[in-house]
Amino acid sequence: MSALETSVKLRHEIEDFFFHEAELLDDWALDDWLNLLTEDASYFVPPTDKPRASHLDTLFIIADDILRLRERVLRLKDPACHVEYPPSRTRRFISNVRVNVDGDFIDARANFIVYRNRRGGDIRMFTGEYRNRLVRINGELKILERRAILDVEELGALGMVSFIL
Amino acid sequence: MLANGKLVIESSAESRFLVNREVFVSEDILKLEREKIFNRSWIYAGHSSEISKPGDFRSRLAAGRPIIFCRDTQGEVRVHINSCRHRGAMVCREREGNTRGFYCFYHGWTFNNDGTLRSVPGADSYGDKFDKSLLGLVPVPRLESYRDFWFVNFDINARPLIDDLAGAKEYIDIIVEQSPSGQMEIISGTQEYEIKANWKLLVENSVDDYHLLSTHITWMNYMSHSGVNMKRNKGALLPMQGRGKDLGNGHLVIDNPNYRGRPVAAWISIYGEDAKADIANMRAELAARLGEDRARRVADTNRNLAIFPNLVLNDGSSVTVRNFWPVAPDRIKVTAWCLGPIEETQEQRARRLHAFLTFYGPGSFATPDDVAALESAQAGYASWQEVTHNDLSRGMGKALPDQLDTDEEHIRVFWRRWSELMETQS
């Protein structure tokens, strides 16, 4: 295969991976979604005023290690997670997928629009960029780090980031 | 009992305290609140650490006004109203930075960071009487601080901040005493979000421990799963009970024994075994500096402090500084920060931030459910004409020292002050 063919094939694979992940999240198949993550994965939503900062010295919106992320999924599945009960209807649109191979890692970026719908005509649109770091474990793609960077200057009327963005 | 037309009704004889739900939905009431409460109370503007160097500035809102909170070249803290004296455009549109001055891009007027007018293009057209010294940025009428927390007041005749804070000062002291040098800092990263509810519901919610068990059961589950002891005595609402207290002038606090871990300085399993020794050292430092009794208060108690009308300092899982403003009867603009001692090591700071995000903020395990509760209540108030009053009677009839954090006496403190100010003539 030529270099071009290799790169097109990889991008195709990464796009499919993004689309599959989006489907699981929009279907609230959260346990299946957790299976896409490594055992030491993390999930970040940086603050809107410091989108490029580190969670070690900056207050994020979400900065989960895998332990808290698993707990987050438990919480989201619980009807006592009041903010997401009944669960929001979400629909993700993913485009502009860019892939960069960095040694054993694959850095995958994509633009997203996530619509979040609740009763009473409450429609909110979250736009931004995913910056994910992927690895292959036994040939399977897994997410080591998942970062959803929002475009908004402040959350404002978007309110809470209470579903998996 | 309901016939006297008052919005807040207190009857000791009947142990009832009722708030008319009209106060959550009425435009007229919000207009009155702006006039009688927000234009006359001390409103939080910022923290010294946000403008630590000469020339540092932050632009934000205080009681709805655009302000520039800054430190001028001489090092003096100032708050200018962010509006050009010429035709009103904002002279600072960046969120934060460092500058010698502010520039109005509309017609090019330039101001120094102390607010004085530096230059006006084509000044000769204004004639002889034009006096630049009278055309500086307008300062807020009053600007005062307590322990690095800066407040503004739009009433020139307001009583001094230090007098107004009354008993709240001691609780600010306890928060600040976490730092060996008495210096706390606002940590980078701001949470800014809106809630579709009335602002007074957020005051209530920020100091309401009655709702924990039902609203925050998933957070409690997370704590339990993580090895934190969340066991409650039979019939108890919480693992440990605290007290609700009146601090004077509408300020109030819930003062609680800690069970949920504190970055300074009470270890819980979530922090990890590695953190145990570090936290024990911090605890020892507190005891050496403050004595054992005071150290116990700093390290082993939590406090949710509401400073009337719209600032909340919650010192529990971490410290949050939460400031808010009603943009409409049913909409609050919230800005929240994390506060920590300046001496924290990288590990301590990371631990504080991790702990913060578990409970506080728009992506946490607790705040989103609070917001859901407030928005649900607000939606319910569309029926205010049929279901007319909220009940805040918990604890009535008990002696003051017996008022629990899960009672509502401290919430009544807010409402009594609110009612007093709203009924002031002129």
Q: In words, what does this structure look like?
A:
The complex is a heterodimer of chains A (165) and B (426). With 165 residues, chain A is α+β, with helices and mostly antiparallel strands. Chain A has three helices and six strands; from the N terminus they run ααββαββββ. Chain A starts with a helix and ends in a 15-residue tail after the last strand. Chain B is built from eleven helices and 21 strands. Helix content of chain B is 27%, strand content 26%. Chain B folds into two domains: 46-153, 3-layer Sandwich (Rieske Iron-sulfur Protein), CATH 2.102.10; 167-422, Naphthalene 1,2-dioxygenase Alpha Subunit, Chain A, domain 1. Chain B is α+β, with helices and mostly antiparallel strands and 426 residues long. The A-B interface holds A 45-50, 53, 55-65, 67-68, 71-72, 74-75, 78, 80-84, 120, 153-162 and B 95, 187-196, 215, 217-219, 221-222, 225-226, 333, 337-338, 346, 349-350, 353-354, 356-358, 361-363, 365, 367-369, 371-373, 379.
Query: What is the name of the CATH superfamily of the largest domain in chain B?
Result: Naphthalene 1,2-dioxygenase Alpha Subunit, Chain A, domain 1
The CATH C-level name of the largest domain in chain B is Alpha Beta
Return Rg of chain B in Å.
23 Å
Largest sheet of chain B: 8 strands, antiparallel
Q: How many structural domains does the protein architecture of chain B include?
A: 2
Order of helices and strands of chain A: HHEEHEEEE
Largest inter-chain contact set = A-B, 41 and 41 residues
Largest sheet, spatial ordering of strands of chain A: 2-1-6-5-4-3
Helix/strand-derived category of chain A reads alpha+beta
| Architecture per CATH nomenclature, i.e. the level-2 architecture of the largest domain in chain B | Alpha-Beta Complex
Roughly how many Å apart are the termini of chain B? 27 Å
* Poorly predicted sequence stretches spanning 5 or more consecutive residues of chain B: none
Helices and strands of chain B: which structural class? alpha+beta
| CATH level-3 fold name of chain A | Nuclear Transport Factor 2, Chain: A
| CATH topology-level name of the largest domain in chain B | Naphthalene 1,2-dioxygenase Alpha Subunit, Chain A, domain 1
Radius of gyration of chain A: 16 Å
Helix content of chain A: 10-25%
Which spans of chain A have pLDDT < 50 for at least 5 consecutive residues? none
| Biggest sheet character of chain A | 6 strands, mixed
